[in-house]
Amino acid sequence: MGRCRNCHTHFWGNPHFCPSCKTDLWYEEYNDENWDFRALQEEGNRLIAKGNYEKAAVVLKLALDQVMYKHAQHSMHRLKDAVSDFVWLYSNEAADISDDRITDVLDYFEEECFGQPDKYRENLMQMRRDASRRLPQAQYREKQGLDFPHLRSYWEFAPVSQVTDQNSVSGYEPDILEAKHLLLTESFLYLYLNFSRVMKYLQAQDSLNTQMVTDELLPLLHPDLDMEKNGENDTAKLMENVLCGFLEDGFEELAALYLNHFDEAAVTKVKKRCEQIAGEDVTSTAMLEMAVFAPLLASEKNGKKIYEAMVPAVTEILAQMNQLHQVLSETLDEKERKNLQHTISILCAEYCGMYGVGEYLLGLAAQTDQELYLDAMDQAAGNGITLAAEEMMRSYFYGRRGCEVQPGYAKFYSRLVSLRHVASSISDAVEGVEGLEMLVPGAEA
């Protein structure tokens, strides 16, 4: 016999709700300080093994709540097990779990996967596939607006092909592979993708200094920004200065935007800080502004507003490239010509990166649509996004995403990364295969 903690009514058996006051008895049983995340995860797994699925769902909800909202300590392995069990209950319709709840759990696990071994992202992909069998996604592409950002009606920026084609004035065709290490634009993509982890890090600090940003914050974003392991490069140093600048003033507004809370005053403040920081670092204000806002263009909720705010900066970049082509056509000194060509290529690479950021984020949003996912990642890789190139490498090197094992294709994407000298473990693995011939995907044999 049991007794309700709320109304003190006695009951027989193991009912879910109190027969008298309808209190959730299972919730009350496990919502206790004696039950930490690990204990709840193990209990949920035990209940599934016994076939007590509805009660297991309650227990796993409590376990995941502790991690997601109370920041309980946890290992990635146990978190993966808890999420996997939760997805199993949902996908097999074994328990009452809402679509929104499973989406939030998978999104949270995806955030936790960044910077972790590849196996966890593989687990995530499989869990998303399992959940998609039940999620109401028959029309999800239309419902969620999963189109390439530049296909939306308000997008009027010049296409990449127009910018990269040989210029009729100077005769010089920009080479985006001339940009070494990460692009500034893709660096802000990684900041956007890892923003929850960045916030957790910052909230845990009593104070901050430049060394902490260099040694601890930048490596959270991407290995190529880890100057201690991979050496200093221009983008890493610039990101250090930019992040320090925003942490001094304007970070609250940047955080609001990166957490998908659009506010015109925040946009104005962030643009102003970009101008100030760029002036201190002798960096193009327009290029920095484009890099900061690029990850937000793919937002179904705020993309159009961000687009409108970005138009002046992007227009200025296009004007700068056109002007540089004109100056190049009138310059005879070979050294000066090389410098002009390099500047044009860097501006072009960052512009392509803006497209690539949107393509990469589309790919993430469309992970249950294999064809759209691969198409988006392929285009993002071609526009300079390292994570996209790495995804395509894994797909062909290990035979994932419906791709046949084709190491020669993997080497093509590896070259996109290695020629830019970007630190990448999967690229190192592919390049380390002796005698591997590079094949271009889609080219005729």
TrEMBL record:
Protein name: Uncharacterized protein
Top-level taxonomic group: Bacteria
